């Protein structure tokens, strides 16, 4: 029997084609779950896993029987403890303004007048997004979301879509002010990554493969560079709409959505505002069935989670306002603030950034 620690990683890497959908869970069992998600536990650990699974499955069924318009399902997280699930997040926000290499977002707003937006944007349709990735059991969401924005930005600028390496940033990027954590698998922020990339360039996944572990930096061979990046004004709906016309955008959220399967996620209360995860806005639109407006958000938990690795988050301007009561535990740079006001569902408008001036070396 394999040990649990090793399994936390293998479970992440394995997407199951046989996973059931939300309407097939009436008779679903823990035994079938173990098979579908390729999970193996020592006999001594089975009972506690079963109990975690049963509790979560019951909660998923209850949710789906209610009036909510989005659906929950079972996935690799269903039998995890809250702290194991936490390991699959790990990006954060800084409360401190940043200026190095930053261009004025006002220039952008002048170019793209508010309201002058496309009805719908989906950067996937432009062929400038790489396949969904899986960060595994390492708090490297900041490196994944940052890298994914770099990939798309370089593709938009140069016509070349290249799979870049989150591991380069996990292993090499310093984080002296402990922004969003102490670095590597222990967290950082995406704008720090853009700042680092603007000095050091970036390398390919092929030459610096992902290991989901902290390790010593091996000097990478850069293949592309950026001239700078933009940090959007915080909690600004129009700013994010404008930026999405130009680029995919890295955002920070409270990712209390482990059981999400499909639909527009609109449960403001369930999500909360304790920012702990980095993801990417790759567009927005309006759901044809419910009429709900949504943000198209790419996650880094593999394709078996959500809508092929994506979640659609309710897009309701700045109507949702909340307080992150523990920025020190997930989001800020030192000295950590005590609280921070955040807007948008799951606090998604609070810290957005994207790369500028990409070119191939
Ligand atoms: C990336 O560009 C910056 C200037 O914007 C430059 O200082 C740096 O050397 C470049 N890095 C590489 C690897 O080309």
UniProtKB/TrEMBL annotation:
Which keywords accompany this UniProt record? Disulfide bond, Signal, Zymogen
Q: Does the keyword Disulfide bond apply?
A: yes
Which top-rank group of organisms is this from?
Eukaryota
The family database entries (InterPro entries) matched by this protein are listed as: Papain-like_cys_pep_sf (IPR038765), Pept_asp_AS (IPR025661), Pept_cys_AS (IPR000169), Peptidase_C1A (IPR013128), Peptidase_C1A_C (IPR000668), Peptidase_C1A_papain-like (IPR039417), Prot_inhib_I29 (IPR013201)
Which segment of the chain is annotated as a signal peptide? 1-18
Domain named Cathepsin propeptide inhibitor is located at 30-85
Q: Which family does it belong to?
A: Belongs to the peptidase C1 family.
Protein's UniProt name: Uncharacterized protein
In its UniProt entry, the species of origin is given as Triparma laevis f. longispina
């Amino acid at each position: 029997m394999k040990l649990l620690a090793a399994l936390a990683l293998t479970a992440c890497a394995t997407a199951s084609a046989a996973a059931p959908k939300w309407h097939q869970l009436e008779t679903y069992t823990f035994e079938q779950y173990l098979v579908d998600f390729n999970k193996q536990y020592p006999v001594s650990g089975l009972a506690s896993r079963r109990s975690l699974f049963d509790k979560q499955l019951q909660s998923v069924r209850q949710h789906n029987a209610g009036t909510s318009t989005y659906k929950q399902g079972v996935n690799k997280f269903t039998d995890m403890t809250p702290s194991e699930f936490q390991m699959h997040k790990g990006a954060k926000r800084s409360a401190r303004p940043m200026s190095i290499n930053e261009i004025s977002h006002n220039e952008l707003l002048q170019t793209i007048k508010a309201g002058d937006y496309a009805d719908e944007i989906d950067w996937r349709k432009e062929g400038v997004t790489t396949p969904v990735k899986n960060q595994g059991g390492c708090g490297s969401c900041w490196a994944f979301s940052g890298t994914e924005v770099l990939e798309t930005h370089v593709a938009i600028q140069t016509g070349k879509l290249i799979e870049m390496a989150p591991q380069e940033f996990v292993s090499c990027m310093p984080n002296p002010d402990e922004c969003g954590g102490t670095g590597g698998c222990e967290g950082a922020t995406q704008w720090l990554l853009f700042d680092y990339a603007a000095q050091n360039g970036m390398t390919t996944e092929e030459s610096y493969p992902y290991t989901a572990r902290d390790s010593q930096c091996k000097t990478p061979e850069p293949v592309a560079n950026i001239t700078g990046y933009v940090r959007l004004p915080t909690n600004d709906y129009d700013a994010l709409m404008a930026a999405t016309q130009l680029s995919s955008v890295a955002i920070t959220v409270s990712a209390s959505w482990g059981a999400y399967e499909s639909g527009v996620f609109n449960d403001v209360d369930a999500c909360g505002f304790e920012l702990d995860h980095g993801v990417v806005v790759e567009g927005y639109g309006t759901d044809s069935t419910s009429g709900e407006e949504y943000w198209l958000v790419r996650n880094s938990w593999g394709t078996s989670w959500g809508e092929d690795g994506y979640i659609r988050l309710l897009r309701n301007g700045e109507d949702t306002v909340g307080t992150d009561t523990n920025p020190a535990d997930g989001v800020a740079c030192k000295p950590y603030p005590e609280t921070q006001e955040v807007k948008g569902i799951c606090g998604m408008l609070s810290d957005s950034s994207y790369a500028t001036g990409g070119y191939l070396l």
